[in-house]
Amino acid sequence: MERCFVTRPFGPSRWLVVCSVFAASYFTHSSAALGQIQTEAVPGETASVSRNSKVAERGSVNYLRSGMTYSGVFLKGLIAEAYQVPFTRVSGSDAEITKMLSETYDVTVKAPRPISQQELMLMLQRLLADRLKLRVSRTPKVEQVYNLTVRKDGAKFREAVTDGEVDLDRKPGVYQFNRCAMWRFSAFLSNRVGRPVLDRTGLPGVYDFVLKPDTSPGSEPSILRDVSQLGLEMEPGEGSVTYLIVEHLEKPPE
After folding, report:
1. CA torsion 38→40→45→49, rounded to 10°?
2. Rounded to whole angstroms, how far apart are CA atoms 16 and 32?
3. Residue 205 region, left (φ>0) first, then alpha (ψ -120 to 50), else beta?
4. Cβ(242)–Cβ(33) under 8 Å?
5. Alpha carbon of 34 to those of 42, 77, 78, 171, 188: distances in Å?
6. What pTM did the predictor assign?
7. Cα separation of 11 and 56, whole Å?
8. d(Cα 231, Cα 169) in Å, to the nearest integer?
9. What's phi and psi for 183, nearest 5 deg?
């Protein structure tokens, strides 16, 4: 069994992606995700960030209905997570910042109640802005994309009901997605089709589901047919793809 959902974008020793957690776009919430950081905290929220200097085989992300924990995750990946954009489209404005983006961190964000993916994203943004003085700018580009939407007969999977690691178990002929947000699934799809996949599903939660690749002959990538198993579809078109530039960044206090 190959675990590849968080391995390569997070782990210091394996950087290439198979299904790259951060290799897809999440632009249905672009005005909130990429705009000014919301400063009002969730009442009772707690957050921590610290350097992780250990060289691990891979980093990990654990989903909690009340937050997330990250262990040994590249700072570049954390920033991508906070803004829910592809980690491949996050870059530093100079050599020093670029170097800092490759450092690994442990992060915990928690609230006293279950929170939405939107609330989690804003908690991460606040934490990085407060502790690391993160400041970013954005460059949008119009590119050829696929729009991921829900078919008329509805999505054929359910929300995850347990806390645990966010990952993908790859087995022969089967991909098992565990606690997967749709922007993460777009990551997997984007890597497969070689162009950005924009999440237009409107599905706000995290989900467990299985994808079985179609191996029958076809002129188009089989993944375009595969997603129909899940009650989803991918339509080609043009879309705005945003690139994040990290303009300012500081190491957290010891």
Report:
1. 50
2. 29
3. beta
4. no
5. 19, 16, 15, 36, 22
6. 0.79
7. 7
8. 21
9. -70, -30
Q: Distance (Å, rounded) from C-alpha 82 to C-alpha 72?
A: 16
Task: Judge whether residue 13 has pLDDT over 60.
Answer: no
* Phi, psi torsion values for 251, nearest 5 degrees: -70, 145
d(CA 54, CA 10): 13
- List the domain boundaries for the chain: 2-35+43-140+241-248, 141-240
Straight-line distance from the first to the last Cα atom of the chain, in angstroms, rounded to the nearest whole number: 39
Q: Are 17 and 7 in contact (CB under 8 A)?
A: no
Integer Cα distance of 114 and 20 in angstroms: 26
Higher pLDDT, 238 or 188: 238
Pairing of strands 206-211, 67-74: unpaired
Per the DSSP assignment, residues forming a β-bridge with 107 are 49, 70
Per-residue pLDDT tens over the stretch 31-46: 333 444 444 666 778 9
Residue 191 has φ and ψ, to the nearest 5°, of -65, -35
Distance CA(11)–CA(107), nearest Å, equals 15
- At residue 44, the pLDDT reads 78
Most confident of 88-92, 114-118, 187-191: 88-92
